[in-house]
Specification:
about 110 residues, alpha+beta, about 15% helix, 2 helices
């Protein structure tokens, strides 16, 4: 049975699915989305953009990474970024108009 990991904001009830939990020496080593032929999560550009936007959006909120068996609430209570339920939002839509996509282009503001 696979165990999956999620990045959660408890305050906003939003989630990012991180994929299957991969263990080394009984500890979480990393998470992997997709089958074994898929690129590792760190090299999936859109996933990384979503994670960085999520961290910015939820600064000072109660966020954390949880495996599915550790979650107190069911995922049905959360809006999943990249999910396929009616209440979810696609990764493309989540990233729409995010100024972080143009970071490094000289368009930043110290704001």
């Amino acid at each position: 049975m696979s165990i999956y990991g999620y990045l959660l904001c408890h305050d906003c009830k939003q989630a990012v699915w991180l994929g299957k939990t991969i263990y080394a020496d009984s500890r979480v080593a990393y998470y992997h989305l997709g089958n074994v032929t898929e690129l590792p999560n760190w090299s999936q550009l859109q996933l990384n953009q979503v994670v960085w936007k999520f961290l910015a959006d939820h600064t000072s909120h109660r966020i954390g990474v949880y495996r599915d068996f550790e979650m107190e609430e069911t995922l049905h209570d959360y809006m999943e970024i990249g999910g396929d339920a009616v209440v979810d939002v696609s990764m493309d839509d989540y990233l729409t108009d995010w100024p972080g996509l143009s970071a490094g282009s000289g368009a930043e503001s110290d704001g």
